[in-house]
Q: What sequence folds into this?
């Protein structure tokens, strides 16, 4: 009902609407736009903006689609649990996605050193990625501490690849672009 590509572009207010709808779909089926606005702590206008971003013409069309979705889930519960998995495989099998993966692989294999950086869960992912690349003979280091002191000795990092990882999909503010 809500494509991932569009959900990741939502602002905080729209995300609160999305979370409420996902958490309480049966309850939302019978709500007016004002009731949903009150429960989501946003204005009815914000809900309409959210619905337009999700490609609905209005609240009535959204409620109809939600009821139809609920009916499908009742009739075919096992098939519905496969929807996120099938969406993932559809995205992964896309030619542009495979092209991006190939570009990343070329950058990693061409670099003399690869530095993987992440914090929290992203740091664990960085450690796993470094280990995986090391298994293929690629020299990698992991950084999970943003406050690690800078080395005093000057090094040539011209042939080094820096990979910044984010599990949440957010981007770091103030990150260097060079």
A:
């Amino acid at each position: 009902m809500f494509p991932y590509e569009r959900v990741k572009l939502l602002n905080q207010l729209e995300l609160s609407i999305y979370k409420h709808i996902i958490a309480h779909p049966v309850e939302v089926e019978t709500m007016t736009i004002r009731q949903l606005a009150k429960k989501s702590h946003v204005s009815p206008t914000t809900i309409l903006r959210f619905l337009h971003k999700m490609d609905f013409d209005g609240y009535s069309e959204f409620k109809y689609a939600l009821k139809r979705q609920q009916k499908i889930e009742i009739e075919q519960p096992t098939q519905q649990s496969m929807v996120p998995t099938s969406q993932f495989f559809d995205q992964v099998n896309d030619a542009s996605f495979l092209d991006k993966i190939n570009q990343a692989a070329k950058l990693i294999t061409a670099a003399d050193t690869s530095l993987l950086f992440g914090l929290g869960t992203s740091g664990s992912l960085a450690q796993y990625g470094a280990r995986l690349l090391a298994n293929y003979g690629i020299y990698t280091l992991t950084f999970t501490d943003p406050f690690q002191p800078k080395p005093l000795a000057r090094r040539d990092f011209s042939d080094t690849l820096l990979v910044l990882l984010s599990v949440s999909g957010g981007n770091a503010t103030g990150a260097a672009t060079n």
